[in-house]
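I'll show one example:
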Amino acid sequence: MQTDIDPRSLIGRKAFDREGTKIGTVDEVYLDDATGVPEWAAVRTGLFSRDAFVPLEPSEFVDDTLLIPFDRALIRSSPDFGVGRHLSPEQELQLYHHYGLDSPPPEEPAESTPDRDFGRLAGQEE
């Protein structure tokens, strides 16, 4: 996905699976804490449904929509971690495994830096 897009501009955009079927609407965007790059999006899958976490890489933002290159069933069955909270490294690893993606290489631990800000939400100040 393009990294020069303001992640807040994704919120409220429609999301579609690889067949072009509407999945829902982007509810939140999660940034990698180390790089600040948008990494995951929570997509509201329906009126009474939960948010499904989807990877922003290899997804594409085209014509004001998020195109997710996975099947609807896989997206809807993603692990449910709730929204509005940080994703832990363990939760992120579960998402990588769920989508069959290679997880990023482990980061070198910073001196006494806790993981509390891992996967922070776009638009939240530190």
Remarks:
- The beta strands are 14-16, 22-31, 38-44, 51-55, 60-62, 65-67.
- Residues 89-98 form the longest helix (10 residues).
